[in-house]
Design brief:
Strand content: 25-35%
Helix content: 10-25%
CATH architecture of one domain: Beta Complex
Organism: Exophiala spinifera
Radius of gyration: 17 Å
Number of strands: 9
Order of helices and strands: HEEEHEEEEEEHH
Protein name: SET domain-containing protein
Largest sheet: 5 strands, antiparallel
Number of helices: 4
Pfam family, one: SET
CATH superfamily of one domain: SET domain
Distance between the termini: 35 Å
InterPro entries: SET_dom, SET_dom_sf, SET_domain_protein
Length: 177
């Protein structure tokens, strides 16, 4: 289907965008990471990443048993039953390359299930040379949080979510993965 056909049929469309001045650095203390080469003002859309939504069966058979589990987001889906449940989705583009930071998070993200994208936005002014980091959420960490070691009193992700998973916070129920 061409873009004109999609427009004529009123199909949902989402423009894809990426801020200028970003690089992927291959060997940081956290592994690969996204860094700013230019200053980025607060509120700038950093990236609009399409997602690949997995069915619950695909999560169980493939995602759960591979390193993909470390790159997925909880995602509301009506994939098989028509009833909204939580499954997982893989962010394409830079969406899977942002590292976690509890205290130095400078990028926020928001799901848009209607067009199956995640929009990443600068939470504050970001200076050239800074790593762009998101919060994975306290319940999702599969590694020792480097920021938490610096702050022994910190028991959550700084977003007021405590120990609740995104699925629990969404009200759609917890999906055991």
């Amino acid at each position: 289907m061409s873009a004109n056909d999609a427009a004529a049929n009123d199909e949902p469309r989402q423009p894809l965008s990426r801020a200028n001045g970003l690089v992927l650095v291959m060997n940081t203390p956290k592994g690969r990471g996204v860094f700013a080469t230019d200053d980025i003002p607060s509120g700038t859309v950093i990236e609009v990443s399409p997602v690949l939504v997995f069915s619950e069966e695909e999560v169980e058979k493939h995602t759960r048993h591979t390193c993909l589990q470390h790159y997925t987001y909880y995602w509301p889906s009506k994939y098989t039953t028509g009833k909204t449940t939580m499954t997982q989705a893989l962010a394409l583009g830079l969406g899977s390359m942002f590292n976690h930071s509890t205290r130095a998070q400078n990028v926020g993200w928001k799901r848009d299930p209607g067009v199956e994208v995640i929009v990443y936005t600068a939470l504050r002014d970001i200076k050239a040379g800074e790593e762009l980091c998101i919060s994975y959420g306290h319940a999702r960490l599969w590694f020792e949080d480097a920021d938490a070691k610096d702050d022994p009193d910190s028991d959550d992700d700084g977003n007021g979510t405590g120990d609740k998973s995104l699925a629990e916070l969404s009200g759609l129920g917890k999906m055991e993965l």
